[in-house]
Amino acid sequence: KNKEIICGMIFNPITNEMFYAEKGKGAYLNNSRIRVSSRKNIDECVLLTGGPILSYKNKEIFFKEYESVSRKVAATRKFGSSALDLAYLASGRCDAVWERNLNYWDVAAGIVIVKEAGGTVTDFKGGDKYIEDRNLLATNSKIDKDLIALLA
Fold it and tell me: Could you tell me the pTM of the whole model?
């Protein structure tokens, strides 16, 4: 509505999980309310990322970020779906997601789900240009500053 994401739905057919949210009404997994994690120490956090595809011209930037982040967090994972990564963040299964070179349609539903679950979605500088820049950082709202410093 007026270029604002007001609802989103992500379905995982393997696990039969439906993640969904509507602005102002919370985020849900199969009719149960979900919230982001409460971890605030970055060294205890699990982060998800997509990593560059072979043709991505700036993949060296990603590898530098990956090394920097990996040294500070408990673990990093790559599952291969930006949408599900954001759903997992919203349900507290991980603490943050960072991705480069995204398409809007890959993350639109996840953005509203994360926000309604109490998370934060920004660009790598903490601003709101994640759609224009195609670079997204989504967190549990407790580790934003730490990750922005690592990705800068």
Answer: 0.94
Q: How many domains does the chain have?
A: 1
Q: Where in the sequence is the domain holding 74, given as residue range(s)? A: 8-151
How far is it, in rounded angstroms, from Cα 42 to Cα 144?
A: 10
Q: Find out whether 29 and 93 touch, Cβ atoms under 8 Å.
A: no
| CATH at 89 | 3.40.190.80
Distances (CA, A) of 41 to 53, 71, 95, 147: 30, 14, 10, 11
* Model confidence pLDDT, tens digit, residues 92-128: 999 999 998 889 999 999 999 999 999 999 999 999 9
CA of residue 128 relative to chain centroid, distance: 14
How would you classify residue 150: left for phi > 0, otherwise alpha for psi between -120 and 50, otherwise beta? alpha
